[in-house]
């Protein structure tokens, strides 16, 4: 691996060569997409993450104090795209990492220096605990409570919809440490196996246990696990959501481009109706690619994209659903009736994309943000 910071194109070329040479040792990572059991899938993918970290390739774009090699976060975006172009699925754990990692490095460098390394290296999985039964879109009303106790807090309450919670070692969670509203919220990092944590899988419509709900009964969390300042967790979460909407959209567009190209190859030249839909989806994906690239570059430069990232989320949900609808309609019989592992994976992925208009912030809410805070429309005009 070069010791001088590569350009995005140089890093992609280096990764491509590395995958050609080492890909045969990573069969489990390639197979992960088809693995129907979600836990197995997430765990298998970790071997790819570990190998990339050990090779040094995925260290670019992360600061040195967490074990990285430095350079812009744009390098991480380049790496994710090349993985997809070479036929690999971006590990689920890397998508959570891109949500939590950058904001921890920026707003809680000591916590990041102590805890982030194993996640970057694919040796730990973390999940995100924001949502509660009465606090999804209205996140500021969350009730999971952390009461000061010595040099830490005792946490009692509930979270739900934690993606990859079934395999997660730790959870980055929003808790109430102060008054009602967004100014009384803090973010903590808790071990999923701490005393008093009860983790229960939630079976999704895919048939997979993709999420968990957690019940916390007087769980102790030390002060060294506070992410950002006390009662400033809302601002940490808002910063984090920019990465969740920007880098996640970029990761997904890279995968969707490869999937759509595969669909195009499978459709007969005479099938004009489907070809037209592929063209529409391609246009949507191109818009998503341009928008998420702009967001990632802004974030990498330390800028604050702000409410405009809601546009990325809206484009992402539409593009994901369009491409997976096309994949389903190309082979409707297999989609409905086939029990082969490949058909199971296509079905599971299609179901998951239905939720793209909910997770990471429901689309109605994003449209409201764009209307009011990007376009400046009056509230009554919605
Ligand atoms: C696949 C998936 C993965 C997820 N992963 C995680 C995770 O890892 N961690 C985590 O913390 N959470 C996660 N979530 C939860 C997700 O963030 C919430 O589902 C989402 O924020 C919506 O909250 P809710 O489910 O409570 O729905 P609600 O907020 O009750 O919304 C229900 C409906 O009402 C609409 N609505 C609500 N308020 C308004 C309004 N003011 N104006 C207009 N329309 C409105 C919404 O758009 C939506 O259509 C995940 C969810 C899914 C589906």
Topology:
Blueprint: H1 8-22, H2 27-31, H3 38-55, H4 74-85, H5 92-107, H6 109-115, H7 117-120, E1 126-129, E2 145-149, E3 152-163, E4 170-176, E5 185-191, E6 197-202, E7 211-222, E8 226-227, H8 233-266, H9 272-300, H10 309-330, H11 332-337, H12 341-354, H13 363-374
Flavin-adenine dinucleotide binds at residues 127-131, 136-137, 161-163, 211, 355, 358-359, 361-362, 364-365, 368.
Major sheet: order of its strands?
Answer: 1-4-5-8
Q: Supply the CATH architecture of the largest domain.
A: Up-down Bundle
Identify the overall geometry: globular
Number of domains: 3
Which ligands appear in the coordinates? flavin-adenine dinucleotide
Question: Averaged pLDDT, please?
Answer: 93
Q: What is the level 1 CATH name of the largest domain?
A: Mainly Alpha
Query: What are the secondary-structure elements, in order, as H or E?
Result: HHHHHHHEEEEEEEEHHHHHH
Q: Rg, please?
A: 21 Å
Helix content: 40-55%
Biggest sheet record: 4 strands, mixed
Low-confidence stretches: none
């Amino acid at each position: 691996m070069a010791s001088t910071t590569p350009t995005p194109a140089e890093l992609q070329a280096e990764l491509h060569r590395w995958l050609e040479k080492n890909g045969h040792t990573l069969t489990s990572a390639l197979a992960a997409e088809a693995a129907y059991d979600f836990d197995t899938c997430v765990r298998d993918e970790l071997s790819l993450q570990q190998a990339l970290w050990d090779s040094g390739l995925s260290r670019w774009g992360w600061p040195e104090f967490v074990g990285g090699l430095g350079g812009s976060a744009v390098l991480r975006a380049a790496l994710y795209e090349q993985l997809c172009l070479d036929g690999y699925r971006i590990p689920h754990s890397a998508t959570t990492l891109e949500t939590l990692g950058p904001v921890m490095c920026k707003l809680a460098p000591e916590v990041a220096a102590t805890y982030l390394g194993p996640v970057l290296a694919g040796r730990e999985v973390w999940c995100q605990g924001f949502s509660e039964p009465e606090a999804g879109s209205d996140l500021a009303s969350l009730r999971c409570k952390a009461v000061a106790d010595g040099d830490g807090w005792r946490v009692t309450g509930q979270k739900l919809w934690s993606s990859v919670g079934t395999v997660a070692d730790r959870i980055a969670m929003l808790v109430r440490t102060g008054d009602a509203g967004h100014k009384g919220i803090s973010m903590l990092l808790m071990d999923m196996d701490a005393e008093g944590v009860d983790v229960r899988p939630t079976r999704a419509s895919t048939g997979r246990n993709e999420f968990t709900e957690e019940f916390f009964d007087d769980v102790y969390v030390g002060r060294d696990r506070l992410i950002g300042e006390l009662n400033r967790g809302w601002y940490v979460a808002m910063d984090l959501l920019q990465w969740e909407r920007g880098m996640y959209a970029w990761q997904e567009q890279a995968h969707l481009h490869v999937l759509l190209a595969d669909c195009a190859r499978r459709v007969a030249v005479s099938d004009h109706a489907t070809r037209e839909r592929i063209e529409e989806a391609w246009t949507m994906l191109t818009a998503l690619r341009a928008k998420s690239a702009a967001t990632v570059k802004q974030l990498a430069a330390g800028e604050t994209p702000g409410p405009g990232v809601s546009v990325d989320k809206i484009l992402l949900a539409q593009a994901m659903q369009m491409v997976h609808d096309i994949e389903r309609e190309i082979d409707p019989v297999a989609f409905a009736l086939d029990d082969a592992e490949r058909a199971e994976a296509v079905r599971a992925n299609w179901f998951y994309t239905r939720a793209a208009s909910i997770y990471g912030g429901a689309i109605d809410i994003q449209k409201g943000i764009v209307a009011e805070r990007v376009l400046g429309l009056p509230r009554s005009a919605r």
